[in-house]
Write a structure and sequence with these properties.
Elements: H1 3-15, E1 18-19, H2 20-29, H3 50-53, H4 56-71, E2 78-83, H5 89-101, H6 103-108, E3 109-114, H7 118-127, H8 129-133, E4 137-140, E5 147-155, E6 164-169, E7 172-181, E8 184-190, H9 195-203, E9 213-216, H10 218-230, E10 231-243, H11 245-248, E11 259-262, E12 265-267, E13 278-280, E14 283-284, H12 285-293, E15 298-304, H13 305-313, H14 328-342, H15 344-348, E16 351-358
Parallel strand pairs: 2-3, 2-5, 3-4, 5-10, 10-14
Antiparallel strand pairs: 1-7, 6-7, 6-9, 7-8, 10-16, 11-12, 11-13, 15-16
The protein binds S-adenosylmethionine.
S-adenosylmethionine is lined by residues 36, 49, 51, 83-84, 86, 90, 114-117, 120, 155-157, 160.
C-alpha cells in the first residue's frame, strides 16, 4: 500500500464511500503524497506536454500575448498569469523569447507563474531567476484577486482538475463513488452527491445514454467562473485536450474519458498506486464557455492547436523555430518537433485552444 492509499482507505472505512472527485484531488494534490506535490523529475517517466516538445510552442504563444498587449492599447503593465506553471519551463520559453525578440512587450510584462505545488514552485524559482531579478516575473501559489489588464492562460491544467464520475442506470443519473472492500478500492454506485452535478448536465442540454459513463468537471466550472471575476480587461487562453459537450458525451464516449498514466502506459485502473500515477479527464470546452459567460467571459475562438500555431507561425514561415548558429541537422530536428505539435495525428488536433475575452467592447480577437 502507498502511504496515501492507507490514508484514503482509513477515511473511507470511517466515514463511508467518497465521491471520485475527492479521491482524485487527494491522489493529485495531497500536500505530501499527491502526484503533483512531488518534485518534477519523476514526471517525464509518465507523460510529456507540448512544452516539452520544443520551445517553439512558447515562442508562438509569446507572439500571441504580444498581439493581445497591442489589442489592449499597450498598457504599461500587462499581467500574464500562467496557471499550473509547473517547474516554469513554458514561462522560461515565453520570457526568453520576449526578451530577445519582443523587447517593448517584455518591459510591459508582469509574468506570474502560479503553481499549487510547493516543490514545483521552488524548481521554477531557480529556473527563472534571471527574469525575476529583471522584475518581469513572480511565482505565486494563487491567482491575484484582481487583474486590471492582461491574460490568464494554462496548458494542460484543466485536464488535471478533479472530476466526479457518473453513470446512467435505468434512466437515472447516478454517481460512482469510491468505497473500500477488503483493503481494495471499489466502485460504489450511489445517488448524486451534489445537485450541482444535475445542473452541470441540464445547463448543457446533455442526457447521458443508458449505461454511459461520463465525468462532471465541476472544479473546472468553478475555476473559470472565478478567474472571469478576477480579470477586468483582457483574455483567458486555455490549451488542453477535449471537446465541446455534444462530442464529449456522444455515443463514441460511452466509457467516459478518465484515464490513468504511469510510465507512458495508459490504463483505466484509477485505483492503482494512489499518488503515484497521473489521472486526467478530457476537457469539456462547452462548460468552460458556459460558466465563463457567468462572469463576463465571451468566447472569441475555439480552434485546434494545429490551426492556432499555424496562424501564428506562418507569418514568418516559422523562423522562430531556429536558434542562432544552428546547423542543418539541428534545424531538421526542430522541424520534426514542430510537426509533432501541429500534425493532426500528433498533438495538433487532439489539443484545442479556447480564447475568451472580457472588457474589450466590440473589438475583437
Ligand atoms: C499537467 S501539469 C501541466 C504543467 C505545465 N503547464 C505543462 O504544460 O507542462 C498540471 C499542473 O497544474 C498544477 N495545478 C493544478 N491545479 C492548480 C491550481 N488550481 N493552481 C495552480 N496550479 C495548479 C499542478 O500542480 C501541475 O503542476
Amino acid at each position: 500500500m502507498t502511504p496515501l492509499e492507507e490514508l484514503l482507505a482509513e477515511r473511507i472505512r470511517r466515514y463511508g464511500p467518497i465521491p471520485f472527485a475527492d479521491f482524485m484531488r487527494e491522489c493529485l494534490y495531497h500536500p505530501v503524497h499527491g502526484y503533483y506535490s512531488k518534485a518534477e523529475s519523476q514526471r517525464f517517466a509518465d507523460y510529456y506536454t507540448s512544452v516539452d516538445v520544443h520551445p517553439i510552442f512558447g515562442r508562438l504563444l509569446a507572439r500571441k500575448f504580444g498581439q493581445m498587449w497591442e489589442q489592449l492599447d499597450r498598457p504599461t503593465e500587462f499581467l500574464l498569469v500562467e496557471v499550473g506553471a509547473g517547474v516554469g519551463r513554458l514561462a522560461g520559453h515565453v520570457l526568453d523569447f520576449c526578451k530577445a525578440r519582443l523587447p517593448e512587450f517584455y518591459w510591459a510584462l508582469r509574468y506570474v507563474a502560479v503553481e499549487r505545488s510547493a516543490s514545483r514552485r521552488e524548481q521554477a524559482a531557480s529556473r527563472l531567476e534571471r527574469h525575476a531579478t529583471a522584475g518581469r516575473l513572480r511565482i505565486a501559489a494563487e491567482i491575484a484577486a484582481q487583474i486590471p489588464a492582461g491574460c490568464i492562460f494554462s496548458n494542460e491544467l484543466i485536464d488535471a482538475l478533479a472530476v466526479h464520475r457518473m453513470v446512467m442506470r435505468e434512466g437515472v443519473l447516478q454517481e460512482i463513488c469510491v468505497g473500500c472492500d477488503n483493503e481494495e478500492f471499489v466502485d460504489v454506485v450511489a445517488t448524486v452527491s451534489t445537485c450541482a452535478i444535475n445542473e452541470y448536465f441540464a445547463t448543457q442540454g446533455i442526457t447521458l445514454y443508458e449505461g454511459q459513463h461520463a465525468e462532471a468537471g465541476l472544479e473546472a466550472c468553478d475555476w473559470i467562473t472565478e478567474i472571469g471575476r478576477r480579470i477586468a480587461r483582457g483574455f483567458v487562453l486555455t490549451v488542453d485536450y477535449g471537446h465541446r459537450a455534444a462530442e464529449l458525451f456522444d455515443e463514441r464516449h460511452m466509457r467516459g474519458t478518465l484515464l490513468a498514466y504511469r510510465e507512458h502506459c495508459v490504463s483505466e485502473d484509477f485505483y492503482a498506486s494512489p499518488g503515484e500515477q497521473d489521472l486526467t479527464a478530457h476537457v469539456n470546452f462547452t462548460a468552460l464557455e458556459t460558466w465563463g459567460r457567468r462572469s463576463g467571459l465571451e468566447t472569441a475562438t475555439l480552434t485546434s492547436q494545429t490551426a492556432f500555431l499555424l496562424a501564428l507561425g506562418e507569418a514568418n514561415e516559422f523562423a522562430d523555430l531556429y536558434d542562432p548558429g544552428q546547423n542543418e541537422a539541428e534545424q531538421i530536428r526542430a522541424r520534426l518537433q514542430l510537426k509533432t505539435l501541429i500534425h493532426p495525428e500528433g498533438m495538433g488536433e487532439r489539443f484545442q485552444v479556447l480564447l475568451q475575452r472580457k472588457g474589450l467592447g466590440g473589438r475583437l480577437r
